[in-house]
Amino acid sequence: MKIIIKDTKANASTAAFKLFSKGIKQGAKVLGLATGSTPVDLYREWVASDLDTSELTSINLDEYVGLSPDNDQSYHYFMQKHLFEQKPFKQSYVPDGLKAAADPEGVSAEYNQIIKDHPIDIQLLGLGQNGHIAFNEPGTSFDSITHEVKLTENTIKANSRFFSTIDEVPKTAICMGIANIMAAKEVIIMAFGESKADAVKKMIEGPVTEAVPASILQKHANVTVIIDEAAASKL
Ligand code: GLP
């Protein structure tokens, strides 16, 4: 694992953007994208840049089950607002949360096929406080592919800050599996703030265990961890 520590989230996001831009300039065509508060600065920088996305394909990690694309808490909406409206891609894929409410297995199978048809060159990731990647919670098999996940209480609580009440947070999501993520040619994972320090330590220094999904990244041949000093404070 290559580890980059910057003093602030802003500087770490700039470093991540540079790495992403370099990969795109070197020919990356399929980008795996993430949501959450972590990549927001990176996307802001991307929107302000002259980096052209019109020939690129994006594939997002996950979507809440039951939320329509125009629901302002859906990951579809998040991506439109933070990146796609200003930087349209040739094609962009996000799991269909509404369709998944009726047919989670069908939507998962379709999404796996999409990933198979468009192998991911660079996968961007955030990190959950409990070490999750995308919505792959502790205990998820390292062999998992796109599937419906039941969110843990910890994740529902952490993500409730974006909803008016905790009861509005969906209980399940459709999410790329850990095997899909590991198949990406390059991975860039970012984590900021003290609340991520424990997960960062376990991801980098802990044993590789399904109890800490992100620890599997120790086995990936091309992964860069980009963190601020607060997230690095327990290393
Ligand atoms: C969610 C997302 C993850 C994200 C994580 C951390 O559960 N599914 O993709 O990495 O939260 O979120 P944040 O970046 O807001 O800390």
**What is the CATH third-level topology name of the largest domain?**
Rossmann fold
List segments where confidence is low: pLDDT < 50 over at least 5 consecutive residues.
Answer: none
Mean pLDDT: 96
Oligomer type: single chain
Number of strands: 10
| Biggest beta sheet summary | 7 strands, parallel
> Tally the helices: what do you get?
8
What amount of the residues lies in strands?
15-25%
Can you name the CATH architecture of the largest domain?
A: 3-Layer(aba) Sandwich
The main sheet orders its strands as 1-10-9-6-2-3-5
Envelope shape: globular
Order of helices and strands: EHEHEEHEHHEEHEHEHE
Bound compounds, each kind once, are: 2-amino-2-deoxy-6-O-phosphono-alpha-D-glucopyranose
**Helical percentage:** 25-40%
Give the class from helix and strand content and strand pairing: alpha/beta
Termini separation: 14 Å
Number of domains: 2
What's the alpha carbon Rg, rounded to whole Å?
Answer: 16 Å
CATH class of the largest domain: Alpha Beta
Family: Belongs to the glucosamine/galactosamine-6-phosphate isomerase family. NagB subfamily.
Pathway: Amino-sugar metabolism; N-acetylneuraminate degradation; D-fructose 6-phosphate from N-acetylneuraminate: step 5/5
EC number: 3.5.99.6
Active site: 62 (proton acceptor), 130 (for ring-opening step), 132 (proton acceptor), 137 (for ring-opening step)
